[in-house]
Design brief:
- The protein has about 160 residues and is mainly β.
- The protein has one domain: Jelly Rolls.
- The strands form two sheets. The protein has a six-stranded antiparallel sheet with strand order 1-2-3-10-5-8, covered by helices on one side. A six-stranded antiparallel sheet has the order 7-6-9-4-11-12.
- The protein is globular and about 50 Å long.
- The protein binds fe (iii) ion (FE).
- Fe (iii) ion binds next to loops.
């Protein structure tokens, strides 16, 4: 079958980049690496890289998240399991959890396919911040301009 002419182009890239600048700083010792940013259905795929231990964030998902741990390990305070390298994790809509990287884990890298939003909560379940595909794109754009990769670099990953 012919590839339909209105199909959007594929994306093929080294997920763990050679150029360190591709990692977008999210917080001290926390970065994400955009892979695919879908502005039509509000979904994005990225790697999360953490090089510190402790609590990262408490958040809620209004839509499904799929994760695959590439390196290191992490867990959620609300659950008893530990996600280790090779683990697949499904976070259903409505999940509220607090991401923790334990002492002794030098680096964790996890692939996440996220739909909708990340809704960040405080201990009293008040919304303190949120992110969606558009705020992620804006973060990437700002970082890539600042680091010299340029304003258009992020376009490679937007569909
Ligand atoms: Fe989550």
């Amino acid at each position: 079958m012919m590839i339909p002419p209105d199909a959007v182009p594929e994306i093929v890239t080294l997920a763990i980049p050679v150029d360190e600048r591709v990692w977008v700083p999210q917080a001290p010792d926390v970065w994400f690496r955009p892979l695919m940013l879908n502005t039509t259905n509000g979904q994005w795929c990225n790697l999360l890289r953490v090089r510190k231990s402790g609590v990262l964030s408490r958040h809620r998902h209004p839509a499904p998240v799929h994760g695959y741990v590439i390196k290191g390990s992490w867990r959620y305070l609300e659950h008893s399991w530990i996600a280790t390298a090779g683990s697949y994790v499904f976070e259903p809509p409505g999940e509220v959890h607090t991401l923790v990287v334990d002492e002794g884990v030098e680096e964790m890298i996890t692939f996440f396919n996220i739909s909708g939003a990340m809704i960040y909560l405080d201990a009293a379940d008040r919304v303190v911040a949120w992110e969606d595909v558009h705020t992620k794109i804006e973060m990437c754009r700002r970082h890539y301009v600042a680091c010299g990769l340029g304003e258009d670099f992020i376009r490679k990953f937007i569909r």
